Amino acid sequence: MPAGFGFDLTAFLSACTALLAAFVFGGLIGLERQIRQRNAGLRTMVLVAVGAAAFVHLGNRLLGAEGETRIIAYVVSGIGFLGAGVIMKEGAQVRGLNTAATLWSSAAVGAFAGSGLIAEAGAVTVFVLAGNTLLRPLVNYLNRQPISAAATEAHYRVHAVCNAENVTDARDVLSSALARANYPIREIDVLSETEDQVELAASLIPTTADPRELDAVCAEIEASDAVDSATWTVSTTL
């Protein structure tokens, strides 16, 4: 065993150094999260980094490098449960993924610090902060760009409006037209329904699509006596 159970001043100072480094670096990451009013802010990031550093350092004190390796493996997998707690699904939107990834990165900072690799812990901190700040303008720019139906993997729907008594025939027309165009269908849903008309939507399996092909499919569907009108829409996948 690398260390006994008595008080070891050198080992104690080493532990304090590791914990202080984890506290400072975790605090820097948490400060950026706190400023942006995220669910996991300053205190959470500090505690994750310090906790990871403490466990890794303890593994080293008890079993040396082998103990560090074991603890780091548990930190990598165990932090996933904490990250899952900040991920929320609101309708079709999933929120908190970036915060969960930041928690995971804070644990990595703590693991480096707990292993005595203070410089590396600082380097990881810099890259985490850069990812959360410097990349933000680029992400915002890309998010404002229109969805390219020809190049973007997205969620495509082909819509058909028909009379209520023609729903079965309209479903068959949708399925046949998309099958001939080699666009596989995940499901066909009823989006809206009144006494006179029904709107069907065929959801395609995520893929790329050619707008001209989808326009041709809609024209073919509209040509059917069972369908009043047809169109297609595209939205981003999760």
Automatic annotation (TrEMBL):
Keywords for the protein's UniProt record, in alphabetical order: Cell inner membrane, Cell membrane, Membrane, Transmembrane, Transmembrane helix
Pfam family, one: MgtC_SapB_C
Transmembrane annotation, as ranges: 12-31, 40-59, 71-88
Domain MgtC/SapB/SrpB/YhiD N-terminal: 19-140
Occurrences of domain MgtC-like C-terminal (ranges): 156-232
Subcellular location(s) of the protein: Cell inner membrane; Cell membrane
Membrane topology, record value: Multi-pass membrane protein
Keyword match 4Fe-4S: no
InterPro entries: MgtC-like_C, MgtC/SapB/SrpB/YhiD_fam, MgtC_SapB_SrpB_YhiD_N
Function, as annotated: Virulence factor required for growth in low Mg(2+) medium and for intramacrophage survival. May be involved in regulating membrane potential by activating Na(+)/K(+)-ATPase.
Family: Belongs to the MgtC/SapB family.
UniProt protein name: Protein MgtC
Organism name: Labrys wisconsinensis
Lineage: Bacteria, Pseudomonadati, Pseudomonadota, Alphaproteobacteria, Hyphomicrobiales
